[in-house]
Amino acid sequence: MSPVQAPNAVVMIRPHNFRSNPETREDNAFQTGAEGENVAVQARNEFDSAVEQLRAAGVQVHVFEDESNQTPDSVFPNNWFSTHAGGHVAIYPMFAKNRQSERRIDVVEMLKRDYRVQDVIDFSGLEADGLALEGTGAMVLDHVERVAYTVESNRADPVILERFCTHFGYEPIAFEARDRFGNRVYHTNVLMGIGTHYALVCLDMIVDPNRRTMVQDRLVQSGREVIDLSEAQIEAFAGNAIELTGTTRVLALSKTAIDALQPDQITIIEKTAKLVPLSIPTIETAGGSVRCMLAGVHLTRRKSRIN
């Protein structure tokens, strides 16, 4: 079973001081914000349960602790780094100041130690110029067809996108997307997710009809069945899912998301993947869901290392 699109390992950051990030609230319409002294404990319990479920499904999970009270969004590591077949790692510039502290040397060192890493390309210095490209939040990557689907936003600078695509060998397909209130979608991975044999996407939120048709056509041409999500399903994080390889192929998504899917949509997914719903209602108040919590490891493990 090829793990090209569906990695068999992920990195997750266990939060100790989780809370809704005031610096990202302005452009993240999904962020509702949970209040109360038990929020951090609830988030940590949800995290631990999610790790347990993923491991039970056969997915390798690398857990790192975050005890800082300066990084409220650290539970979403897919925004600051990504990994790629052939031994490549990218590190990204972040839009919000307090998210820039989420980058961790120990995560990169673990990847170098346990996996074959040829190079680490660090774009984070471009933060000094006020530029951001927030990893696989800003880009939804088709690792098979080598396409980087990207919603235009202040979290996805076109210059860095072009540099990333040139270096890593992806074709950029950028488009504007807005919700029913006219707000710009802040991250592509709330709008779409690409599996091996299917793709989740809300085509109606893509503003330009020509770009909408182009995105749909490219997904169909890749041989995938397109599951066209409604905006209500997007608001329930149904697009914020990730396909992984465990004992079988699985689609990790939230309980909120699976409850929003229609039976026919679930049937399409279950042809080739087992659904693994994770209950993370507290974490979702920060404006991200399961996909944001999981940084996929698309690297070859060193055979000499024992788990």
TrEMBL record:
NCBIfam families documented for this protein: citrull_CtlX
UniProt xrefs under PANTHER family: AMIDINOTRANSFERASE
InterPro entries: Amdntrnsf_FN0238
Protein's name according to its UniProt entry: Amidinotransferase
Species of provenance: Shimia sagamensis
Domain of life: Bacteria
Region listing for Disordered, in residue ranges: 1-28
